[in-house]
Design brief:
It is a single chain. The protein has about 160 residues and is an alpha/beta fold. Helix content is about 40%, strand content about 15%. It is built from five helices and five strands, in the order αββααβαββα. Strands 2-1-3-4-5 form a five-stranded mixed β-sheet. Helix 1 runs parallel beside helix 5 (about 140-155). It is globular, with a radius of gyration of 14 Å. The chain starts with a helix and ends with a helix.
């Protein structure tokens, strides 16, 4: 259970991630946005999906943000950082999250097809996971879900 103050903080950052997702969607990408902040609430990295632009299947918002944050820190250990992402991460992104040792992942919409933090599987708590992280789902979930549904209706 999170406090009202924690919820408001998470909502603040999620709204910024939603803005990044909107920009990604306007450029033809699936609208997913991600932001990594440190324990002082300083932004280390932010990104939207860029698979189409970079012709790179690994160019998910989460992976791009993790790469940038690690370069910024000159260290792949992000153990005092939180990742805000508009959609529950897929297996590839969850692997990157676990390996980067992020402290917390806060996501918006559940992904009933490929979400592996809680929906389809639970990678953080699986026996193969070498890192335990906090997971908070459902922050601004309606806004995140609506953004995705609208984009898919228009583009697919």
């Amino acid at each position: 259970m999170i406090t009202h103050a924690e919820y408001e903080r998470h909502l603040f950052w999620m709204k910024k991630a939603i803005a990044l997702a909107e920009i990604a969607g306007q450029s033809g990408e699936i609208p997913v946005g991600a932001i990594i902040v440190d324990n002082r609430d300083q932004i280390l990295a932010q990104s939207g999906n860029r698979k189409e632009k970079e012709t790179d299947p690994t160019a998910h918002a989460e992976v791009l943000a993790i790469r940038t944050a690690s370069r910024h820190r000159q260290n792949w250990h992000l153990n005092d950082c939180s990742l805000y992402v508009t959609l529950e991460p897929c297996p590839m992104c969850a692997g990157a999250i676990i390996h980067s040792r992020l402290k917390t992942v806060i996501y918006g919409a559940d992904d009933p097809k490929t979400g592996v933090l809680r929906s389809v599987a639970n990678f953080p708590d699986a026996l193969f996971s070498n890192h335990r992280l906090n997971v908070i789902g459902g922050i601004a979930s309606n806004d995140c879900r609506q953004l995705l549904q609208t984009w898919f209706m228009r583009n697919r």
